[in-house]
Amino acid sequence: MLYYLFDYIEKNFNFPGAGLFQYISFRAGAAALLSLIITITFGERLINYLRKKQVGEDIRDLGLEGQLQKKGTPTMGGLIIIAAILVPTLLMAKLDNVYVILLIATTLWLGMIGFIDDYIKVFRKNKEGLAGRFKIVGQVTIGLIVGLTLYFNDQVVVREVKPATVASIQTFQTEPGARMEYKDTKSTKTTVPFVKNNEFDYSDIFPWLDKNYTWIVFTLVVILIITSVSNGANITDGIDGLAAGTSAIIGLTLAIFAYLSGRVDFSSYLNIMYIPNLGELVIFCTAFVGACLGFLWYNSYPAQVFMGDTGSLSLGGIIAVLALAVRKELMIPLLCGIFLIESMSVILQVSYFKYTKKKYGEGRRIFLMSPLHHHFQKKNIHESKIVTRFWIIGILLAILSLAMLKLR
Is residue 408 part of a domain? Predict the structure, then answer.
């Protein structure tokens, strides 16, 4: 909204400083700052309100040190994360941008599913919360919307250099004002990490399938990614500060990807896809990072508030859609490695328990407890140390993901 206001002021009144809102870097920085202010300023008010309404977490006794002391800690703190993401985005971003619209819709939709789940747990006193099948239906629905939009919307294109003018790339890079022919095309290409010619087209998955049906394959992949990452973030949200800190690291990395892919000069230099209109996502990303960091003010050990499913499901969904938008979704296993190992620890634990119970008559375990962070708690490692070490691993994975821009 402020973008349009200051754009009007600049064009009609030539007001000094109004032109700053034309720069994505300025609006991204302002969005991050505003997001931090919202979470830190209004976070305490939300915590006090949740305490007044007795919206506290019902902790099950899993035999973990310090666990029962968290009983009654306010949950549903994801509401402040969602507000701190959406308010700066609505104020600073171009609201006619298809990528921004998709991210806003994803945030609200998955936030609503998580809120319903938390509401059932807290107010209905049902520890199971929203039935798993309803969560999956909700995730599949937003995945369907995102997949179809990314495939069919006319704003979602990739700018490609025509074969006859590939040689002009060097001239374009070295001589300001040099012109280069290009065309904007609808594409289902994505980036493959660790590969030199690192573009892969979803239409090549089934060569025998008519290309008119590529949208089916692409949409199914989008649904799978959104469902997997949102559930991975949900599983990771088990100890103070882990999900929020990890999400902030991933969000910052995706902001860099969005900025580079949204600029023709950087994308040409790095030989990556230039995606028109993508630059606006940087504003959403910085608001996302600011919200996560601001939430850590109250969620770091010992937590004064938990984000609940309201926050964790929306954080995971946002990360998935951001990765899809910048066409780095195949890098998710690396970039979101913390989410992956947390999810895999649960899958392996449950599968091995069922297998050994069927074969030997008693269930056996791989880990002392799953998800993986609880395994380390069982080994008497303090949760703040576990979280810090996971953050360090997350930072290393983020650096490796960024290095993939040139390491192929």
Answer: no
